[in-house]
Amino acid sequence: MSLMEGLILTGINNIFTVHSENNLYLCEIKGKVLRGLENVYNPLAAGDKVKFAVDEISDNKGMIVERLKRKNEFSRWNNKRNAPQTIAANIDYLICVASAGNPPFRPRFIDRVLVMAESGIDVLVVLNKSDIGIDNTTMVRMEDYKRMGYNYIVCSAETGENMDTLKKIISGKISAFVGQSGVGKSTLLNVLYPGHELKTGAVSIKHDRGRHTTNYSKLIFEDDGGFIDTPGIREIEIFGINPDDLGFHFNDFSEFRETCRFQPCQHKNEPDCGVIKAVEDGLIHPDRYESYLRILASLEQSGAV
Ligand SMILES: Nc1nc2c(ncn2[C@@H]2O[C@H](COP(=O)(O)OP(=O)(O)O)[C@@H](O)[C@H]2O)c(=O)[nH]1
Ligand SMILES: [Mg+2]
Ligand SMILES: [Zn+2]
Fold it and tell me: What would the pLDDT profile of 158-171 be if each residue is shown by its tens digit?
């Protein structure tokens, strides 16, 4: 029995759509567990590369026997499952989508995405829904992200503003679109890559947040690249970071960290802390520091390291 290599496009209930040599195969994990990944809640995510055996009777079916080594992954802690959940694997570009309003701009969500984005992943922050107006505090935050090394663009799927710029940036790459539900990920992708008709949903007026219209991550191929539409996420729970190291995931802390009297320093209440001083001097945005403290508290509480 010969094995083929393929790319996971999507998976629901142990049925995975695998792309290989211009064909699609519906595959299951052999025995439901992959060797070496026995304790992982979702061992395969959109973007994973696998080895599989094609069924001898129906040639569009197969059995996955191995996951190939990942280049990178974007994951979060899934509280419901009490396990890490990989949202996308092997991506070239993480597109962190936020909206200027409806649902309200939530920089703390962006902060969490940036913490979970491994150092090897390029991140672009996309502020969508510019057509409904962007307030000044939001723009200050976007500029702050830029200062700490993350590029951003302001756009509107509705009016088409900057859509060609965005398309240019992601063409030829595999990008994953992440963000709170309702910010317009699927709508943006429908404009960028017409023809796939991803489901979109009205933002509920009552809660001012989107409904979950996308239930699972899905990779879609285009000739020059591809994209992963990810499910509506209400919160990104951080895991796998030692509280002492959290500060290293905040790029804007880097130039001040070295001046902390204690090493390691959790920048919480240590005397002569360079980070706390920078916050007091207005060199680190107070809301970034607040994000930091909240994530630190959650890491200490969960003990998930
Ligand atoms: N005003 C405005 N509404 C938008 C824009 N992009 C998306 N929407 C609306 O926002 C709602 C949620 O969009 P959707 O793509 O489902 O969000 P997702 O949950 O992030 O995939 C839909 O009603 C869209 O029509 C935009 O640029 N401007
Ligand atoms: Mg969606
Ligand atoms: Zn410190």
Answer: 999 999 999 999 99
